[in-house]
Amino acid sequence: MHTEYRFIKSIHDIQPLLSSLNENSIIAIDTETTGLDPFQNRLRMIQIASLNQPVILIDLWKASYDIISSLKKIFTSSALKIFHNAKFDLKFLIKSGFIVHGPYFDTMLAAQVLSAGQKSQGFKLSDLVREELSIDLPKELQNSDWSGEFSEEQLSYAARDAQVLLEIYPCLLSKLENAHLSATAELEFECLSAVVDMELSGMLLHAEKWAKLTEELEKNQSDLAATLHQRLKEGFKRIPQLPFMDNLNSEQPPLNLDSPKQMLEALQQLGIPLKTTSHEELSQISRQFPVIQALIDYRKVTKVLQSFASTLPKYIHPVTNRIHPDYWQIGTTTGRFSCRNPNLQQIPRDQIFRECFIPSEGNLLIIGDYSQIELRVAAEISHDQRMIDAFQQNQDIHCLTASLLIGKDIGNVTKEERQAAKAVNFGLLYAMGARGLQLYAQNSYGVEMTNQQAVDFRKRFFEVYQGIASWQKELSTSRLKEIRTLNGRLRIWEDHPKMTELFNSPIQGTAADIMKQSMAMSFPYLNRNNIHLIATVHDEILLESPQEKAQEISHFLKETMIKAGKKFIQQVPIEVDIVIAKNWSEK
DNA sequence: TCAGTTCGCGCG
DNA sequence: AAAGCGCGCGAACTGA
């Protein structure tokens, strides 16, 4: 494959492209950098492809002032800008001082939207080119070095990567239209700037506080390990013929407390009836066996220690002193974000962890949280009149469920009853069984219920919320193999889906649509005011704002989040809780 | 030995 | 008839 290109030497070489730009222009942009980290590595080359023109290549390290200012004009023009994984290029462009304006078309996001959750790989540029153009791109230059002189081969590959974007774009565009996925893709593209800002901003961790916390947890862990050993030993003393006895008395670590396999074996030998050592099974018998409670306690602290406490500091960036995770816009089959390196979306809720996430000097956090968004979406989608009425009358939905289930006046519902109803609401919405409900209520909300109670609650729930019941009934008899969110986001299954997945997908997915809409809608204003998005956790947005602007910005965020919700949800009001805080634990 | 899988568990 | 869904991560475990 040969690509015509022009290596820009002077302002005259870039003039044809610049002067041909208008609001209908379409350009494809790719960049080459000296590495993957926008804070430590440098943007070297920019390639721009446009219709009926050779690809232009600009060596940023040698570009004159004139060329740079031409580039600035190109990036802020209203031309459609096509990228593959725009997030990467945009981060480098912004760190290099460029302002880049949409509209964007991201070929990677487009392909992911089109795949509708059917595959998790195969979104590399070369994959798309093979699929859309039936062309096998020659192998990428292995570890290509973009910090020295360019070879002819490097230049030609660089140009080619920009050129093919222009060629696969119409294919992807028409596929999106045919699949009625344009709105979904548009929303993803409109989100891009917000996601870029979020990754560049990252979050600030109070490192000293965190270190102290880690120390305490480590002490805690060794105490709990000792307790667990002690309890195991006590158990085996009563059954002295068991082989583990010797082990436990020796100096060597008797058995690996972290090994599910070894623990299962040991506990079974103690006569404790277990099939696995999952928390679910353990929690049921923790009262009868002190050793089980000891294992649960040990595991809890071990988990947070190895997953968070000891690993998080490794992610503090040497340049910014902040943590910059990777967000994946289509990291999940339903449309939610996923987050990695580290996954800030699963920092324990416990105050001792979250209070370590703080704003920088002179700033405050603004935390916006959609209230019961999935239940509101469910009411909207299922048209359940009782649930819709409840939300419209601003009733507490969990109290309402409690009062309806137990036939009590809504004002007399106790805290415990509300907790139980919360479990019922969230569980049964996605068709949890009675057994599951019972365990879920216990584990998530500390609510004891008998199996019979769970069966009754389940029955009552569907009598009371008939709209939910008939919506589920309709779906489960439909034999559908695909389903959409309220923004038209599609999920397709290869085989017949589990009903539970079919129920959950449009609800979780619509909530994700709303979150993305709110990010897209709020970014331009935030950006103008120099306010940064610093995280998003499914139904929650975090901003960092100078103290003196916080009031105004929090008001704006709340209104924008509600406005975003209203775009998809009309029958039910959207509620957003806003907090201005000195750390992440204040919610 | 090492890549891939499973278990268990943190979050929403 | 019965059925929680969506992730990422670390350690243990499996298989060639």
Description:
The protein is globular. The longest helix has 31 residues, at 207-237. Helix 8 (207-237) runs antiparallel to helix 12 (290-309) and helix 17 (415-429) crosses helix 18. The strands form five sheets. A six-stranded mixed sheet has the order 1-4-3-2-5-6, sandwiched between helices. Strands 14-15-11-16 form a four-stranded antiparallel sheet. The chain has 22 helices and 16 strands. The N and C termini lie far apart (57 Å). The protein has helices at residues 11-20, 65-76, 86-95, 107-115, 125-133, 152-178, 182-201, 207-237, 244-249, 260-269, 279-285, 290-309, 351-354, 373-382, 385-392, 397-406, 415-429, 434-445, 451-464, 466-476, 499-528, 550-568; strands at 5-7, 26-33, 43-50, 55-59, 80-83, 104-106, 204-205, 326-328, 338-340, 357-358, 363-370, 482-484, 490-492, 532-536, 540-546, 576-581. The protein has four domains: 5-179, 2-Layer Sandwich (Nucleotidyltransferase, domain 5); 207-312, Taq DNA Polymerase, Chain T, domain 4, CATH 1.20.1060; 324-372 and 509-581, Alpha-Beta Plaits; 385-464, no CATH class. A hairpin with a 5-residue loop joins strand 12 and strand 13. It is of the alpha+beta class and 587 residues long. The chain binds a DNA duplex (12 and 16 nucleotides) through residues 256, 258-262, 276-279, 299-300, 303-304, 306-308, 311, 331-334, 336-349, 374, 426-437, 440, 498-501, 503-505, 507-508, 511-512, 537-540.
